[in-house]
Amino acid sequence: MVTPGVAFLLRSSPVLSIPLVLGVGLRPLSRQLGGPEIAAWIVISLALTSLPLYAVFRVLLRDWRNQRAADALGARLVPVKKGKSIGSIDILRQMRHNRKHGYPADGLNQGVEELGPVVNFKVLWMDTILTTSPEHVKLILSTDFNNYVKGDRFKYGMRSVLGTGVFNSDGDQWKFHRQMTRPFFNRDRISDFDILDRHADDVISLLRQRSNAGYSVDFQDLIGRFTMDSASEFLFNNCVNSLKANVPYPRNAASPPPQPTTYAAQAANTFVDAFTLAMLRLSEREELGRIWPLFEIFGDKTAEPMRDISKFLDPVIEAAMEKKHLAGTKEKGGDAEELSLLDELLNTTSDPRVLKDEILNMLLAGRDTTMHTLTVVIYFFTMHPDVCARVREEVLAHVGPSRRPTYEDIRDMKYLRAVLNETMRLYPSVPFNVRENINATVWPSPDPNEKPLYIPAGSKLPYSVFMMHRRKDLWGPDAEEFSPDRFLDDRLQTYLLKNNFQFLPFNAGPRICLGQQFAYNEMSFMIIRLLQAFSSFTLDEEAFAPEGRPPREWANTAGRKSIERFRPKLHLTMSTAGGLWIKVKDA
Ligand code: HEM
């Protein structure tokens, strides 16, 4: 099998062979055409400089064409953030460093402060136009939807894990996947809390048991197991059972009791670790941009985690296909409630590859996003005990201390919804996203006194809801503060309702998150259950691993970065570096 790196070199071979062709062919060609004898040193110099010259020529030609096209439309080019080194490689290096060690949007913020809310970070001579403007995001996601795609570059990087699933497809292929999965998210199904309730019980008993024994718990790890188990049961009726596997003890625990390693626990941890690693590899590719295959010359870095994922998923899919085969085609309107997404999908396709792609896409969509939001809600509870107490009051008033919450309870709990929204405003699970434009286009200028902006065809267009959600001109002077009431008081009218594209944790338009309502239900359900069981939460900072502690220098910066006591980390989705170690107080 050809590795991604070798495939990349083969694809680039026509250009890469220019020096060779010049070196070997120039002198004989000149002789044959009766031209002058070319000195060897000239041939060598030409061969050596041909590639850089070719690249410079192409870049200059493209920039000249873009300028002409912009002029013709009465527009201007997007301001470029210039790096100090050739191809702005220093910016790329800085971004990679920031991703690993910085706070989300470090580096990008400087560009935006300097040049405005739309900046071209022209890394490796490729137009990479970042916008934080609601009006541009609206064009991308909604009003000019057909001109913006995930694009071949993005899809190629994700393909070895996500295949052609709903996340990783465009056009008719995407429509096919979306139509296939949408019916599954109907109101009855997403309000059926049986699965959630069972797994929430496991979370609570584990928290209680560890708390009684005096240990703190990594809430992110625990809740990731909850979202994985719920999603796997919901999606393919086959629980990963990660909550039954060994849950880690804090690193500062004096003598944690030994945990028996069962085959099931090991299998669950292997699957979860492989899934996490595969997602990490994908985010590394996305970060490197179009040159990522060069870092995978000797092998596909997703191959190993995908082997472990397949070991778990393939038998599940085979068993569902077998069951379907034995039962014959289910009639529409049958006992739909009992069917998982996988069973539903089998009514549309029997292609195991399509089934696996879809399931993996859904797991990606459903696990880390809700895990992250719930983790940050609990973090905010530890930082704002008054908010925690107020949500708890609401829980007790609407649901009481032990009853199982219903869909109607959740719908009516306005403050809980405001807390979830405020958490997703400050720490959205998908803080950065990206599209590519098919045709050249023009965006309105953020400064009405300036000409509109010309966007060349095929530009990489990252948009950041993380940055947009913190803009003071859109949210008011307290934009960086955690204040759930902004979704309930005058600020709702003054800011949010003026522009419904400025709050987009779930995206918008035709590709809006399919699981939005399910996610609100799942997260609300879990919080209600937690607040019925526990009255408060505290951080156990002693238990944080060094990589999970915000560096000292953050305290000397501005905004939220200076006050946070956890460390947000960025991959495809956001998470908490080193986890969130907490202690709970029994209610
Ligand atoms: C807090 C929880 C969640 C957040 C913040 C969230 C956010 C998002 C965002 C921003 C997108 C757009 C991605 C893109 O265009 O590249 C998306 C898409 C999607 N989400 Fe969610 N999501 C959440 C939970 C879920 C859950 C629980 C599920 C299902 C189990 C789900 C299913 C999907 C699907 C299928 C898509 C793809 C839609 C498409 O491309 O047509 N999401 N989500």
Write a short abstract of this structure.
The chain is mostly helical. The chain has 23 helices and 13 strands.
Strands, helices and their partners?
Layout: H1 4-11, H2 13-16, H3 18-32, H4 40-72, E1 76-77, H5 89-101, H6 108-115, E2 118-120, E3 129-131, H7 134-143, E4 148-149, H8 151-162, H9 171-181, H10 187-190, H11 194-212, E5 217-218, H12 219-236, H13 263-288, H14 303-327, H15 341-345, H16 352-383, H17 385-398, H18 407-412, H19 414-426, E6 432-437, E7 441-443, E8 453-455, E9 460-464, H20 465-468, H21 472-475, H22 490-494, H23 516-533, E10 534-539, E11 568-570, E12 574-576, E13 581-586
Parallel strand pairs: 1-8
Antiparallel strand pairs: 2-3, 4-6, 5-13, 6-9, 7-8, 10-13, 11-12
Helix pairs in contact: 3-4, 8-13, 11-12, 11-23, 12-16, 13-14, 16-17, 16-19, 16-23
How is this structure best described in words?
- This is Cytochrome P450 monooxygenase pc-1.
- Its cofactor is heme.
- Heme binds at residue 513.
- Belongs to the cytochrome P450 family.
- The chain crosses the membrane at residues 41-61.
- The chain is mainly alpha-helical.
- It contains 23 helices and 13 strands.
- The strands form 5 sheets. The protein has a 3-stranded mixed beta sheet with strand order 1-8-7, with helices on one face. A 3-stranded antiparallel beta sheet has the order 4-6-9.
- A hairpin with a 3-residue loop joins strand 11 (568-570) and strand 12 (574-576).
- Helix 11 (194-212) packs parallel to helix 23 (516-533) and helix 16 crosses helix 19.
- It starts with a helix and ends with a strand.
- Mean pLDDT is 91; it is low at 332-337.
- Protoporphyrin IX containing FE (HEM) binds at residues 166-167, 178, 181, 231, 362, 365-366, 369-370, 373, 424, 429-430, 433, 505-507, 511, 513-515, 518-519.
